[in-house]
Hints:
By secondary structure, the protein is an alpha/beta fold. The protein contains 11 helices and 14 strands.
Amino acid sequence: MSIKVSNITKVYGNQHALDNVSFEVDAGEIVGFLGPNGAGKSTMMKILTCFIPQTSGNASVCDFDVTEDSLQVRKNIGYLPEHNPLYTDMYIKEYLEFIAGLHHIKNVKQRIAEMIEITGLQVEQKKKIGALSKGYRQRVGLAQALIHDPKVLILDEPTTGLDPNQLAEIRNLIIETGKQKTILLSTHIMQEVEAVCDRVIIINKGQIVANDTTTVLQNTQLSNKQFITVEFDKETSPNLLKNIEGVDDAKNVNGNTWRIESNTNKDIRPLIFEYAVKNGMAVLTLHKEEQRLEDVFKQLTK
């Protein structure tokens, strides 16, 4: 077991940032750790990385207790915090050499060269960190997290503020890294979770509200709400569509294409076909939207 958290509570004054939280992450898993702002994500990550102590409960990384064996925990963890703290007046190689020295790494030059290649820093390797774009700064942050070859990576919002191209590059880097390491990943980008994570843990107000694979969560019916996109061959109106049994709202998407919202668990597609036939219309396309992870997240954390 790479990460084991048992009944962790963290109290600040009268506020419970974490309230009796328990979960496990197996070796080789990429797990998304999700929650709204203030839910307790960063607090949990700071406890796992030995930055702050828990009020009660136990946590271990690679079978080392975060309280009793904090130095061993740190040796086994690579950490990229939300606000990537870098020395911007240092050159990339200079900074990585400094980090390597902290970890007492042998063959420093060889290891730095490996990190530059793995994280795609070759083009920018002769620059100062302060001259890099945010995407490349994140790569430097990942390089420092990986340089001592840890078994576990903890990444707190690693793609915040990146443009679509940078996001895709960092996402691919995380996927490749996850083939050899355990990764606990905090993010607000649901597409990122769906693309890279094997499992999702959702935390809200300091408590775990979901812990399962993305597939299971998306197939879990948390409400009766459903959305159907339909294209007719003729014009109609939202008022007429709302007369269909089970239809609560209808919005025009484009031309004769409509997005219909229903709050019933009954399949209303046959009724839409019936409406079309009665009004001398043909249905060109009809698609029932699958529940998105974002919808599940909103329902569990609202």
